[in-house]
Amino acid sequence: GAVVSQHPSRVICKSGTSVKIECRSLDFQATTMFWYRQFPKQSLMLMATSNEGSKATYEQGVEKDKFLINHASLTLSTLTVTSAHPEDSSFYICSAPWNGGDYNEQFFGPGTRLTVL
Amino acid sequence: AQSVTQLDSHVSVSEGTPVLLRCNYSSSYSPSLFWYVQHPNKGLQLLLKYTSAATLVKGINGFEAEFKKSETSFHLTKPSAHMSDAAEYFCVVALGSNYQLIWGAGTKLIIKP
After folding, report:
1. B43·A93 Cβ contact <8 A
2. Which spans in A54-112 are helix H?
3. Beta-bridge mates of residue A95
4. Given an 8 Å threshold on Cβ–Cβ distance, is A42 in contact with B90?
5. pLDDT tens per residue, range A90-111
6. Quick one: chain B helix, strand, coil %, rounded to 5?
7. Which of B16, B22, B20 is nearest to B4 (CA)?
8. Is A102–B42 a contact, with Cβ atoms under 8 angstroms apart?
């Protein structure tokens, strides 16, 4: 199956700083990637759809200026949490659909745990 | 509107006994349905998927699920639980061709020795 990586796996930062999370499709091209947020003991919440070469589509209630998404190539999408605050602490997961199989099958990165002090 | 309901937030079974994790869905389309597993501090792993072929779907690690359109259900089962099955399980519905997924709230499976 296809592989999606995320970097870093864990990050701790001070309040007010910005944090960039990378999501890469390692052995396939992904024109679309998805960014999720998962709070402890809760399900995944879709934040935005990242589109290669165009603007991301954000879900209702997600601040575009807070969570900047850049999908600069067919294998890389980045999520930047700007001016992070403790309430932004969460587990961030990306996914990418793989057209080599079922078009609805997505492959998930291992996640990035962000802790904002 | 599409939705997914996992009927139990926690399920606790003894090792070696059967597992049943319940999932009901609501979809205007012919759905694609998935079960994912998330072990502590690990990424999501696809257990199995239904995409309008056979209604009984076999997945990895001995899990299977049956799509019942009349009951709008897609329950996950395993004949004999193993300690390594302890994890969080998510039932997911795919929305058409735009790849978006609707996630259930998750069921935590606890295996007692």
Report:
1. yes
2. none
3. A34, A108
4. no
5. 999 999 987 665 555 788 999 9
6. 5, 55, 40
7. B22
8. no
